[in-house]
Each structure stands twice: as structure tokens, then as C-alpha cells.
């Protein structure tokens, strides 16, 4: 049998691309040149996505290098761009809501006053809350720190023989390292907030107090879900992913032995507490199982319901630029046949209350507006801070937990002050960042090199003659050194920027020449 | 009036034209402008990094140089902010308090003290984008920042609109920090530079030929960023425009 002749164009299709005729219409052409490598014509098995940049490298109590993690975040331009634009969009929506309310600044002033008043009478209002909650049939527990909180919750769960717990998002439980603790005692925790669930499945901390997975692209989520709940790794359709997650999580919610929520506001006069969500997941967590446990930071107290009206009007407008959260759920007491527990947690708060320059950080209502507006946060990602709280509010809260570990954070700011202006409770965040820098130097928590450099600068700048000599030398250096000396790895300015053009002369010498150096 | 001219360290070293324009501009209004030759810096670099103790001697020197003037004027907001709001490493004597209270940034001085109503010598037939340094905007209150629900005002715009032929363009994020931030620009250089790239690109998209600012520090950073990524935009200090520079 003789072989069937192959038509010329068919034959081309079978040949290795490098052997094809240069006139082959199928050849892959980019920018006018034919690509000759086999790789150029082969498609990857799966579309390549930019890998998600991971957060700061945390080693015990060693200082977290936020700048290093931020640089890695910037090296993932798709992530950085999405992150910056998404959060800037929230800031703009917040601005639109603000412009719709003539009384906005008055509300901020009121909210700040309510919080300051409460914090300066905290013992009184906590006592009121406890008494009223008890008379509503709620079990009230007190926890001095994270360990006590975790043990208390574990104790309640043990008493009920609970093996699984559904919970809504709570920064306080993040602060307490609650999930790892529960894992260590063999209790399964299921996060019910979608973003928080994504982060839980990815074994990653929340990167933002309101939108915990905001640093992830949907392709990142597809990858996480493919590994954990078996979705199609190539399908990153948002509806598909949300639906798959719902299908996977609903049965766990329905079967859970206990539910847990955080708290946005706890009202002293009524002994009730309020949780704000957009997914209704706090209601699921609180109402599906018979047992509801709420973790409440002691700074969440407000005196009366009328104060809630002020704060609720500010919260979601500041956070997401929406007038109100989809759900504002008030919890008063256990339902028939059920049990309700609240754990009032200090975990460093009363110590912070005693810090003259930093106590007003306790006014924070965790809206995240300072993060959304922060130009550094938007370009670094929340995980670069290596702490429970990231962004501007993190810079002033984290060092109260561990001054050494978070000693770099107050320097991750341009002190631009936008954070303080968007803060619905008027915390002077940027002034506290500045004050933390002074505090950390006092506590010797800054690198020796910086210390030496600042000492030298202080010496030089207070001695005019030495200073003039140094300026003259630096001028000469800038004018005559070859480019590669200036743009080396050690010169941080020149790494991503051109250095200033050296002028012919300084103002100082111009003045001597043209104004005769008269005093 | 007898004015002390404070030329911040980096303006002296890198932007003498800004110092010269400030000097000449103040003289146009008939003031005696004195440049104390022993001046160095306001001490902000140390204080901003938490090293308040190391800034005491420099602050004392500043007070020695600038005591006894009707006003001290500087073409840079952050230095003025330091002197006015954070200058507390040195003992707060009557002299220190007087110098702190009389130190003004150039735009403030022209707008609030001199109350200038015309710059007849100034022509700038170009499209410019205004950059307010964050500290000038939010600490010295040069203008209403976009975060606040307050009536609009802008001191630099009040002055610039008196310049013949000038045309303004507005970037999409007018108040966004450009990323300079003093030593932040070196310690967090990657984030700082990215903020600068975004800032100059925003101005370029808005159609600015020039970025004008009351603060040479931001301009120094933005120019370095623009040159690195090839954004064809020019930078000029407000003192130069108000003093009659045409390009």
C-alpha cells in the first residue's frame, strides 16, 4: 500500500513549528516577527494567573518587616491594581454618602463624644450592661485576656457537648487566636461570612476588618475552592463560586451544635447587643443552633439605644458607602429552650485606656474607612502588616499588643492624615502614629542603624559650619559621580526614582553672590 | 515688614530657584527679607522618626536664627508644620513660642497676612494640575480636603487664579498622597515610588503640562518618579509662578 499523499497545508499542521514554511498562515506572529520556538505555539494546560502575593513573614516576636511584604505585593501588579481600585471605590462611595448628609460632621462629633464619654465611665456602663443582660436571661462571663476568652468559650461548648461551631466574623476572635485554639481542642469552627470563610479555607488571616478577602482575585478564590470544596479550578465565575460555597456550607450550618457572633455595639441600658452584617450570617450563627455565644470587647459598650442611632448611621456609610448594613440584628436574650452567653473581653483594653496619648484608639468602631483611604494600605495589602489589625488603625493598636513585634508599623505611613479625616469617631490616627514613633524610640524598639543615622543628622543639622561643608561635598558628588554609583542597590531613593538634578549652586551660595551675603 | 526667609535644607541644596523666587516675590511686596546664613533645617527629619531628643539642638539653632522677625516665611508646608505643631524638643521659652507662632508657609503668608489681590507680573499660559502636599492640605489647612463635609475653599487656588493665562486640570484623585512622606520615601521606597507613579500618571491623564505645588519635597519625589517611568510632565513651585516665571 502506498501512503496517501498529504495535502501541503495539512502537512504543515503536523510539522514542528520550526520546520514550517515561512509563509505558513498558521504561524504565530507577534509584533511582526514569527516566533520560532515550540513553546511559543503551545498553549499552557490551564490559563496562567498571577499568583496571590502572601503576607508578611512572621517569626515569633521579631519585628515584622511590612515594607518587605509590601514590595512583594507590589510585584503582583494585577492584585495591587484590583486592591487599590476596589478600596478607592469604597472611599468614593463613602464620600457620596457623606455629601448626602448635611449633618455628617455633626454626627462625627457626636459619635466621638459618645465614645469618649463611655470610655471615661466604662466601669459604670459595663456594670449596667452586665446587670441588664443577666436580667434578660443571658449568662455573662468576663475574660481578662485571649487565653481566658478561649478557655471560657471552650468551657461553655464542653458543657453542652458541642463539637462544631458556626460563627460570624469577629475581629476580637482573630485577636484571641480563637480558631487555632478551637482546632487544638478538637472543635470544628465554620466561618459563615463569605470572605472570612474564604480566608479560613485558605488558612490565611483576614486582610481587612470589613472585607477580609479583598486582596484576593476571583481566580485566587477559584483556586482555594477547587482545593477545599471541589469546585472547577478553571471556573472563576463569581456566582458559581458563591453558590458552590453556599452548597458546601449550608449543611454544616444546619448541623452545628453551637453558634457564635461578635458584637458591634452593646447597649448598657437594655443589656442588648447589636451585630451588623450584609449577609445575614450573624443571624444564621445566632439562631440556627440552640446555643449562642457572643464575644464582646469591653470598648463596644454604649450607654443608651439613642446613641446607637448615631453610630449606626455612620458605620456602614464609612465602611462601604452604603446607608446601612443589610442586617442590623439586636440580640436580647435566649430563645425558648436555648441559651445565650456573652463573654466580655479585656485583652489589653484597660491597659490601653490608661495610655494618655493612645486611649482614644478605643473609640474605634471597626468600619475600616481608614484602611480604604490609606494610600499605603491600598498598595501594600492588609497581610503585609503581619498583625490582626492592618492599615492606619493597626499602626496604633498593634504596638499595644507587642511593641517589639510591631515596632516597624508606625513607620509605614506618610502621615498624610486622610485616615483621621474619614474616621467616623474622629480618632486622631495620624497624630497617634507620630506619637508611637516617639514612644518606640523611647522604648528602644528601633533599629540601631536608624538610631545612629538620626543622631548623626541631629549633630550635623545643629552645626552650621559642618553642615555647609557636608552640603558642598554632597553637591559635588551628585554632579560628578557616574550614574551607576548613584543608582545602586544601597541607594533606596534611586531604586525606583531618578535623583534630583544637581543645581549649579545652592541657594546659600547664590545668596552670597547676589545679595553679598548680608544678614 | 522685616521677614526672615527660611529656605529648607533640600530646597537650598536641590531647588535654589524656589528660594530665589520666594525671596524676590516677598520683596515685590516691599518687605525687607533677611536670609540668616547660619540656618540649616527645622529638625523635622529626626522628630518624624521618633527621635525628638536628637532634634533639640537643631530646633534651638532655628530659634537663634529666626528670633526677632515680624514673620518667618518658608516655601514648604511640612517644615512650617513641624515648627508650629511639633517643635517641642527644645524648652518652650518666650523666644521659642514667638518664633513658632510667627512662622508661616508662603501661601498662607500671601493669602492670610499679605492678602494679595493681584500678581500683575505673573503670566503662566499652561495647563496645570495643583498638588497640595498632605501636610499643607490637612495640617496647615491650605484647602478643604475631600474627606470632610465642609464648604469648599483653597488658598493656593485663590492665588493661582490671579495669574494670567493659567488653566487648571483636575486629576481623578486630587487629594491622594504622592508617597513622599519624608524618610518614608527611603524606608518604604517601593510603596513610595508606586504612589508617585500613580500620582504623576493621574496628572498626565488629566492633561496637565505642569504639576504646581507649594511644596518642593513632593515635586522632587514626583519628578523622580515621572522621569523614571517616562511621564512627560513638568514640575514647578507655586513661588516661581507667582513670581512671574512663564515656564
What does this structure look like?
The complex is a heterodimer of chains A (519) and B (247). With 519 residues, chain A is an alpha/beta fold. Helix content of chain A is 49%, strand content 10%. Chain A has 25 helices and twelve strands. Chain A has helices at 8-14, 38-41, 66-74, 77-99, 104-120, 122-135, 146-159, 171-175, 178-184, 194-201, 218-228, 238-255, 281-287, 305-319, 349-353, 369-373, 375-380, 391-401, 418-422, 429-442, 448-461, 464-480, 483-486, 492-496, 507-515; strands spanning 29-30, 33-34, 139-143, 164-167, 188-191, 258-261, 265-267, 272-277, 291-297, 301-302, 327-331, 339-345. In chain A, β7 (265-267) and β8 (272-277) form a beta hairpin. The longest helix of chain A is centred in the N-terminal third of the chain and has 23 residues, at 77-99. Chain A is globular and about 90 Å long. Chain A starts with 7 loop residues before the first helix and ends with a helix. By secondary structure, chain B is of the alpha/beta class. Chain B has helices spanning 9-14, 16-28, 44-48, 56-66, 77-86, 94-102, 106-113, 134-139, 155-160, 184-187, 189-206, 216-229, 238-242; strands at residues 2-5, 32-34, 71-74, 103-105, 127-131, 167-169, 210-213, 234-237. In chain B, the strands form two sheets. Chain B has a four-stranded parallel beta sheet, sandwiched between helices. Chain B has a four-stranded parallel beta sheet with strand order 6-5-7-8. In chain B, α12 (216-229) links the parallel β7 (210-213) and β8. Classes of the chains: A alpha/beta (519), B alpha/beta (247). The interface between A and B is large, with 76 and 76 residues.
Amino acid at each position: 500500500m502506498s501512503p496517501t499523499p498529504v495535502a501541503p497545508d495539512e502537512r504543515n499542521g503536523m510539522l514542528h513549528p520550526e520546520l514550517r514554511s515561512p509563509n505558513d498562515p498558521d504561524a504565530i506572529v507577534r509584533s511582526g516577527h514569527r516566533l520560532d520556538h515550540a513553546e511559543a505555539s503551545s498553549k499552557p494546560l490551564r490559563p496562567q494567573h498571577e499568583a496571590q502575593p502572601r503576607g508578611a513573614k512572621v517569626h515569633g516576636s521579631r519585628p515584622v518587616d511590612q515594607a518587605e511584604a509590601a514590595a512583594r505585593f507590589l510585584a503582583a501588579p494585577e492584585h495591587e491594581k484590583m486592591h487599590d481600585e476596589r478600596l478607592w471605590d469604597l472611599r468614593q462611595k463613602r464620600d457620596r454618602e457623606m455629601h448626602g448628609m448635611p449633618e455628617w460632621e455633626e454626627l462625627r462629633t457626636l459619635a466621638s463624644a459618645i465614645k469618649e464619654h463611655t470610655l471615661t465611665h466604662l466601669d459604670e456602663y459595663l456594670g449596667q450592661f452586665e446587670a441588664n443582660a443577666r436580667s434578660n436571661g443571658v449568662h455573662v462571663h468576663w475574660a481578662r485576656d485571649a487565653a481566658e476568652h478561649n478557655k471560657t468559650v471552650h468551657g461553655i461548648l464542653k458543657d453542652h457537648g458541642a463539637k462544631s461551631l458556626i460563627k460570624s466574623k469577629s475581629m476580637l476572635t482573630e485577636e484571641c487566636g480563637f480558631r487555632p485554639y478551637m482546632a487544638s481542642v478538637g472543635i470544628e469552627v465554620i466561618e459563615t461570612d463569605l470572605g472570612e470563610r474564604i480566608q479560613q479555607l485558605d488558612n490565611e488571616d483576614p486582610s481587612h476588618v470589613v472585607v477580609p478577602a479583598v486582596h484576593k482575585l476571583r481566580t485566587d478564590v477559584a483556586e482555594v475552592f477547587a482545593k477545599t470544596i471541589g469546585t472547577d479550578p478553571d471556573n472563576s465565575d463569581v456566582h458559581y463560586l458563591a453558590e458552590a460555597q453556599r452548597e458546601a456550607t449550608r449543611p454544616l450550618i444546619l448541623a452545628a451544635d453551637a453558634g457564635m457572633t461578635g458584637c458591634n455595639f452593646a447597649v448598657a441600658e437594655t443589656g442588648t447587643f447589636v451585630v451588623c452584617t450584609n449577609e445575614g450570617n450573624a443571624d444564621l450563627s445566632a439562631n440556627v443552633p440552640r446555643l449562642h455565644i457572643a464575644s464582646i470587647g469591653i470598648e463596644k459598650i454604649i450607654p443608651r439605644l439613642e446613641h446607637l442611632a448615631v453610630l449606626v448611621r455612620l458605620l456602614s456609610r464609612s465602611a462601604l458607602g452604603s446607608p446601612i448594613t443589610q442586617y442590623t440584628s439586636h440580640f436580647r436574650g435566649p430563645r425558648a429552650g436555648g441559651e445565650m452567653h456573652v463573654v466580655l473581653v479585656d485583652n489589653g483594653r484597660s491597659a490601653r485606656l490608661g495610655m494618655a496619648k493612645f486611649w482614644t484608639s478605643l473609640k474605634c468602631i471597626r468600619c475600616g474607612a481608614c484602611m480604604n483611604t490609606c494610600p499605603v494600605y491600598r498598595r501594600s495589602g492588609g497581610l503585609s502588616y503581619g498583625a490582626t489589625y492592618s492599615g492606619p488603625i493597626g499602626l496604633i493598636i498593634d504596638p499595644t499588643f507587642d511593641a517589639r513585634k510591631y515596632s516597624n508599623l508606625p513607620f509605614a505611613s506618610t502621615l498624610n492624615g486622610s485616615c483621621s479625616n474619614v474616621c467616623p469617631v474622629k480618632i486622631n490616627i495620624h497624630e497617634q502614629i507620630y506619637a508611637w514613633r516617639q514612644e518606640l524610640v523611647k522604648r528602644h524598639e528601633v533599629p540601631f542603624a536608624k538610631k545612629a543615622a538620626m543622631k548623626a543628622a541631629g549633630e550635623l543639622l545643629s552645626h552650621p559650619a559642618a553642615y555647609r561643608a557636608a552640603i558642598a561635598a554632597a553637591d559635588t558628588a551628585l554632579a560628578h559621580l557616574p550614574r551607576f554609583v548613584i543608582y545602586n542597590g544601597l541607594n533606596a531613593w534611586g531604586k525606583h526614582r531618578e535623583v534630583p538634578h544637581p543645581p549649579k549652586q545652592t541657594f546659600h551660595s547664590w545668596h552670597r553672590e547676589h545679595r553679598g551675603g548680608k544678614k | 515688614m522685616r521677614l526672615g526667609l527660611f529656605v529648607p535644607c533640600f530646597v537650598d541644596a536641590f531647588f535654589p530657584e524656589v528660594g530665589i523666587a520666594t525671596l524676590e516675590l516677598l520683596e515685590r511686596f516691599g518687605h525687607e527679607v533677611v536670609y540668616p546664613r547660619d540656618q540649616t533645617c527645622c529638625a523635622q527629619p529626626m522628630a518624624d522618626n521618633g527621635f525628638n531628643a536628637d532634634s533639640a539642638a537643631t530646633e534651638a539653632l532655628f530659634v537663634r536664627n529666626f528670633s526677632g522677625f515680624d514673620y518667618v516665611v518658608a516655601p514648604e508646608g511640612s517644615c512650617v508644620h513641624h515648627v508650629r505643631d511639633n517643635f517641642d524638643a527644645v524648652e518652650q521659652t518666650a523666644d521659642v513660642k514667638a518664633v513658632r507662632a510667627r512662622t508661616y508657609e508662603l501661601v498662607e503668608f500671601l493669602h492670610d497676612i499679605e492678602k494679595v489681590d493681584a500678581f500683575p507680573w505673573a503670566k503662566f499660559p499652561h495647563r496645570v494640575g495643583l498638588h497640595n502636599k498632605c501636610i499643607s492640605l490637612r495640617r496647615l489647612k491650605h484647602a478643604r480636603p475631600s474627606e470632610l463635609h465642609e464648604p469648599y475653599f483653597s488658598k493656593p487656588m485663590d492665588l493661582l487664579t490671579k495669574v494670567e493665562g493659567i488653566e487648571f486640570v483636575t486629576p481623578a484623585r486630587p487629594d491622594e498622597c504622592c508617597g513622599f512622606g519624608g524618610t518614608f520615601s527611603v524606608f518604604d521606597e517601593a510603596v513610595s515610588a508606586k504612589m508617585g507613579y500613580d500620582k504623576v500618571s493621574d496628572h498626565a491623564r488629566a492633561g496637565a503640562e505642569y504639576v504646581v505645588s507649594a511644596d518642593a519635597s513632593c515635586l522632587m519625589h514626583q519628578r523622580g518618579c515621572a522621569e523614571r517611568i517616562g511621564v512627560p510632565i513638568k514640575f514647578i513651585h507655586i513661588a516661581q509662578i507667582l513670581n512671574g516665571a512663564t515656564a
